[in-house]
Design a protein that fits this description.
The protein is an alpha/beta fold. It is about 40% helix and about 20% strand.
Amino acid sequence: MTHRGLVVGVDLGGTKILAAVVDQDARILGRAKRRTRPELGPAHVIDRIAQTVTDALSAAGLSLDQIAAVGVGAPSPIDSDGGVVIHAPNLAGWRDLPLGRLLGDVLGKPVLVENDVNAGTLGEFTLGAGRGSQDMMGVFLGTGIGGGIILGGRLRAGPRNAAGEIGHMVVAAGGPYCGCGRQGCVEAVASRTAIERDLRAAIAAGRKNLLPLPRGTRPVQFTSTVVSRAFADGCPLTREIIGRAQWYLGLHAASIINLLDPQMLVYGGGLVHSMGEELLAPIRSVAHQHLIRQDGPPVDIVAAQLGDDAGALGAAVFAQQSLVEPAG
């Protein structure tokens, strides 16, 4: 027997797939995770998603015939009407792939697909740090910088399903090249990838540092935990590079606030989780200095609360909402 509020949310990333069975009260009843393996091709990844969904249901003591739908957050702009992944560089370059239909054929269930950052933002808005707000922006710092926009209590997609591409707002004209091919995007100067690039370049140039560098030929792993630990230990190089990223993120936050006037910005990602207020306080300070309107209620700049579950929970919420209010 199908339970209308019971869904599976899937966070589909370039390295891992996380599935969670979620009930109508937003409780996670079971989880499962496996590697994505995008190099093996879309059909293989779709099978792996289906296996992960099945594993999550088994962990919850449930079966496919008991759920109403599956929601998927995918790292790509999405044609939400058809569940089509338009272009996913982190999934070996998927283009125009009808993920909703293909996965739906395998599972025999409706599959609703949304952009992964939009899903994470929707999760935080509904169940996490954004609860109680009506206008908020999700900002997720990782390999790149992604964003999701909630206006009037609804996720903003835009007529081309391209709203929220805040990682490509230019904050340093003529600055480093971004993965999009342009120069000076905030993603190119303040993402975890940009921080790692700057650390590697400085170390190669002989700059003194307190980072735990391995001996021999093993490559340095600049995880969020390693970087945050070096920052906390007072490593001057790490503090300089993080400080520069915080400056750009503060300018970026001010631009978002000046444009949208939201109630809050919610920041997520590994570095935010590891550093918390040490990362956010300077961003908040720089943003305030560059606001056009500095009086009135402050715009809250806060850390996300859902951690690794944000994407899967948001995808589940998206599926539940789509069942109540079908797209179109």
